[in-house]
């Protein structure tokens, strides 16, 4: 039998070592994601289900995201914007509407409307004061699509771009996901903020670590067997 060239053995060992390191790094990344997801779940549980509080003087995403708040003001009823959305109720739009409150412009996500309910005449009147959850602005667009204000196509809730598109001034760097206080069958349907999060990062991390360990064991076994021969 012809002996395997040394360079080929070195190449195979290098590829295996690269894969082992890659698996470990992926496991480490999943562990970081686990810590982030755990913090997110704890944050939502501590902020989203309490009594509504006044708007913060200065918005800090880490400190105020998902905080339940109340706001009093006047809606600009002639400046609604529909944002493309997919929810548990199906495809449709988020209804965004500016609220003039406390000397600033605050965009409110009044809730979901299906494609067949885009006519404002069929929308329920907004409740005041507004209660809901603070969410940071979503600039530019999504991973797959971009906002196109000129064409009136919106895929994310970029509050600064929304204000510029409808001719409003300085805008708070967040929006409020409003509660649903109208009839259960009325549109828009608020209160659809996702508050439960799937957390499988630990199982993914253990899978990557197991793959690294198994590959290392296989390489070690084959290497020892070859040296013995």
Short characterization:
The protein is built from four helices and seven strands. The protein has helices at 6-47, 61-64, 159-166, 201-228, and strands at residues 68-71, 74-75, 81-87, 90-101, 104-114, 130-136, 171-178.
Describe what you observe in this structure.
With about 230 residues, the protein is an alpha+beta fold. The protein has two domains: about 25-45 and about 195-229; about 50-180, no CATH class. About 35% of the residues lie in helices and about 20% in strands. The protein is built from four helices and seven strands. The protein has helices spanning about 5-45, 60-65, 160-165, 200-229, and strands at about 70, 75, 80-85, 90-100, 105-115, 130-135, 170-180. About 20% of the residues are buried. The model has no long low-confidence stretch (mean pLDDT about 90).
């Amino acid at each position: 039998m012809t002996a395997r060239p040394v360079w080929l053995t070195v190449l195979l060992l290098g590829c295996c070592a690269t894969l082992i390191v890659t698996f470990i790094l992926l496991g480490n990344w999943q562990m970081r994601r686990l810590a982030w997801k755990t913090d997110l779940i704890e944050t939502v549980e501590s902020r989203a289900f309490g009594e509504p509080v006044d708007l913060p003087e200065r918005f800090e995403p880490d400190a105020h995201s998902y905080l339940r708040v109340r706001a009093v003001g006047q809606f600009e009823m002639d400046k609604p914007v529909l944002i493309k959305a997919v929810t548990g109720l199906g495809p449709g739009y988020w209804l965004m509407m500016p609220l003039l409150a406390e000397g600033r412009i605050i965009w409110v996500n009044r809730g979901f409307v299906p494609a067949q309910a885009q006519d404002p005449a069929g929308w329920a009147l907004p409740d005041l004061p507004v209660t809901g959850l603070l969410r940071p602005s979503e600039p530019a667009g999504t991973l797959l699509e971009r906002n196109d204000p000129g064409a009136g196509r919106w895929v994310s809730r970029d509050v600064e771009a929304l204000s510029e598109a409808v001719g409003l001034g300085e805008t708070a760097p967040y929006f409020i996901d409003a509660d649903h206080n109208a009839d259960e069958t009325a549109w828009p349907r608020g209160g659809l903020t996702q508050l439960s999060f799937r957390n499988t990062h630990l199982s993914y991390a253990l899978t990557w670590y197991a793959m690294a360990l198994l590959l290392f064991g296989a390489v070690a076994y084959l290497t020892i067997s070859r040296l013995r021969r």
